[in-house]
Amino acid sequence: MSTATQTIRKIAGQSLCQAFLIWRVAIAAAVLVGQAASAAPVVLYDSITTNTADGSNTADVTNWLADQFVTDAETYDLTSVVLKLANTPLGSIEVDLYSNNPVGNVPGSVIGGFSNPGSLAAGDLTFTPAIPQQLLPNTSYWVVLKNSGTWNYTNGSATGPGASQRWADGSNSGAIWSASTGGPYLMTVNATPVAVPEPSTWAMGLAGLGFAGVTALRKRRRG
């Protein structure tokens, strides 16, 4: 292979590497723009803000309380849930996220737990996922209170894209559930939409690829 041919191939290889690098930068920038535009927090479910407490039920080791919420067509990262408790919990308290059992539309199996706030007292308590939890589109979930805590309920209605008016009481440590609609427990569910690049984002990336290719071609011709 002649020295001239080797030089041409070397230049062409460098140009293609530069083109690929520019394309990667363009794609990354476009994705970041899409994420920034769609990452605003959302209140999926809220029965606290516009309602008052009309009563309460108490959870213990064997008798559990649950409130349902649903997702819309979006995928979300669950950020926190807020429960309004009527009094300071006696002993340990546990809050978990459950799937929905379509047979009876009651809590199914545990998905993950929540970390307790720094101090437990009566009022609005915020619980955050112990590990990251992603909520799938058009899916029903339950927030389950166990072991301790007196959870307020309302005769009003929940609001938000995930609003459900369904609640449940469990006996035998969740082996048997009795669910009803109307008068949900007082709860707020906060989440953040998972950013999915829009068609315009991919168009930006393709435009960047085209620009990179033209730039590489010009450098090769000048060389």
Order of helices and strands: HEEEEEEEEEEEEEH
Q: Can you tell me the CATH topology of the largest domain?
A: Jelly Rolls
Quantity of strands, as a count: 13
> Roughly how many Å apart are the termini?
19 Å
**Average pLDDT score:** 82
The DSSP helix count reads 2
Instruction: Label the structural class.
Output: alpha+beta
Taken from the alpha-carbon principal axes, the silhouette is globular
What low-confidence regions span 5 or more consecutive residues with pLDDT below 50?
Answer: 25-37
* Rg value: 26 Å
Q: What is the CATH architecture descriptor of the largest domain?
A: Sandwich
Proportion in helices: 25-40%
The major pleated sheet works out as:
11 strands, antiparallel
- Beta-strand content bin: 35-45%
Number of domains: 2
CATH class of the largest domain: Mainly Beta
Protein model, in words:
This protein is α+β, with helices and mostly antiparallel strands and 223 residues long. It has 2 helices and 13 strands, in the order H-E-E-E-E-E-E-E-E-E-E-E-E-E-H. The chain has helices at 3-38, 199-222, and strands at 42-46, 55-58, 64-70, 76-85, 94-101, 106-115, 123-129, 133-135, 140-146, 150-153, 166-171, 176-181, 187-193. The strands form 2 sheets. Strands 1, 3, 4, 5, 6, 7, 8, 9, 11, 12 and 13 form an 11-stranded antiparallel sheet that branches. It has a two-stranded antiparallel ribbon with strand order 2-10. Strand 6 and strand 7 (123-129) form a beta hairpin. Helix 1 runs antiparallel to helix 2 (199-222). It is globular and about 45 Å long.
